[in-house]
Specification:
This protein is mainly alpha-helical and 460 residues long. The chain is 74% helix and 1% strand. The longest helix has 33 residues. It is globular, with a radius of gyration of 23 Å.
């Protein structure tokens, strides 16, 4: 009788991937996240400029397609490390632009920053195509949900600390130059992340021969499970990408929140995402990704509806209520991202893995790259067309912000038809998952809470 196969374990050295994620997230969150949007807003940037800023990183991810032809020949680790090290120099350029004296006009500084961000996005777009295939081959299939949850938790822990520090810093030093120190921190974090990236274990890649045929792109794109996954991601992000453009203007111009409060709310959201990530991965390994995605979309729709009501003036914008609604969106977006990544890892064939990941990333990134620009243009146009909004129902103001949230809700609802078509043979049904979530789990929790008091009950 053959002994049972040993339970899979995380390979040695994966801790370096978590540390890389912490410092890498610290770096990019400062130069492409809320601090950068606030800095550009302080310089007088329009909604179109903010949309372009958000779009640059995903837009240049299209470079993964040509890069995928070389990454397996060069080797995942060498390819990714060289790219990550190269992009750090452009963060230094952004820091210098933030420290330029007042003699340089805001328009010039915005232009320099956009050029540096574009160069950063180009080098990142080329090098990132090797990271996910590298980790996918390194981590056993049955532990990928656990890995993704820990990796995501590390990312959000870094975002929490970074946003809390940024919130305190811009409050203590209310000057545009304060952002220069934050960008300097981003540069140091980028250099540190490369150190841990180099320590992640390498893997043996099958290097294609010099006369290898070109990848069958059409067959890859229309591989049924993969094609349906890409359709859902693109459909969802067509409208969801509008949120990255309007949230900072809504908080700053619509709700008149301070920069410190905006960064503080971002940190609050991040720490919730970290906690959700910690528990979601093992659950995904047991239940599958599809039921988690259904649950996440429900939370997201509730969050978007609440923000629309605030933007329309139906609900007050008290800080306490903002802290109350943020957990719904933070939980939903975290679960959806984690479950989607796990689902993609499971449906991508081993043959041509780098190219499949590149196609998926490029399709999603082009949507996230092009749509924020269009949303930014639409937002500027709406603000000029209806600066004070208009009212159909007493107490409900249709302005640029509330209209945007209404469009996002419609798009999210439409994407649910695509989600129902996703393939995952070993996933638990959504009905069974909801029964466990709403019936069995509360019952178990109640039983555990009552257990210490049972000794006080009479026998029988």
């Amino acid at each position: 009788m053959n002994p049972p196969d040993p339970a899979p374990v995380m390979p040695r050295g994966v801790t370096n991937a978590y540390l890389f994620q912490i410092f890498n997230s610290t770096s990019w969150s400062l130069i492409v996240g809320t601090p950068m949007l606030l800095f550009l807003k302080n310089l007088g940037a329009s909604g179109t400029v903010l949309g372009l800023t958000v779009a640059l990183l995903p837009l240049f991810s299209v470079l993964q397609i040509p890069a995928a032809d070389y990454v397996e020949r060069i080797g995942y680790k060498h390819f990714v490390v060289q790219g990550w090290a190269s992009r750090s120099i452009f963060i230094l350029g952004i820091m210098i632009a933030a420290f330029l004296p007042p003699e340089f006009s805001p328009r010039f500084r915005i232009t320099v920053i956009l050029v540096m961000l574009a160069c950063f996005a180009i080098t990142r777009g080329i090098s990132v195509c090797g990271y996910t295939p590298w980790i996918t081959q390194l981590v056993p299939e049955t532990l990928r949900g656990t890995y993704i949850s820990r990796d995501t938790m590390c990312m959000f822990i870094a975002l929490t600390g970074t946003m809390l520090l940024s919130s305190w810093w811009v409050s203590a030093f209310p000057s545009s130059r304060a952002f220069g120190f934050l960008f300097a921190l981003s540069y140091l974090a980028a250099l540190t992340s490369v150190i841990f990236l180099r320590r992640i274990p390498d893997i043996q890649t099958v290097k294609p021969s010099a006369n290898a045929i070109r990848p069958p792109w059409k067959a890859m794109i229309f591989h049924p499970p993969f094609f349906r996954f890409v359709l859902f991601n693109v459909g969802y992000n067509l409208f969801g990408s509008a949120l990255s453009v309007i949230w900072v203007p809504l908080m700053k111009d619509g709700l008149h929140a301070s920069g410190s409060l905006i960064l503080g709310l971002t940190a609050y959201s991040s720490i919730i995402c970290a906690g959700v990530s910690l528990v979601t991965g093992p659950i995904a390994d047991r239940t599958g990704s599809r039921p988690l995605m259904a649950f996440a979309c429900t939370l997201i729709l509730f969050s978007q509806t609440y923000w629309m009501l605030i933007a329309a003036g139906v609900l007050p914008n008290h800080t306490g209520l903002l802290f109350l609604i943020i957990p719904f969106g933070a939980t939903g977006y975290t679960i959806l991202g984690l479950a989607s990544t796990r689902l993609l890892m499971g449906i991508v064939p081993a043959l041509g893995r780098s190219h499949f990941f590149a196609i998926s990333s490029v399709a999603t990134s082009l949507t996230l790259g092009l749509m924020p620009i269009l949303w930014g243009l639409a937002f500027d146009g709406l603000e000029r067309l209806i600066p004070a909004g208009f009212t159909f129902v007493p107490g409900w103001n249709w302005n640029a912000f509330s209209l945007f949230y209404a469009w996002v809700i419609i798009g999210t609802l439409a994407a649910q038809f695509l989600r129902h078509r996703l393939d995952e043979p070993r996933a638990m049904s959504t009905e069974e998952f909801m029964r466990i979530l709403l019936v069995q789990t509360p019952t178990r929790l109640a039983s555990r809470m009552i257990m210490p008091f049972r000794r006080f009950l009479p026998p029988g």
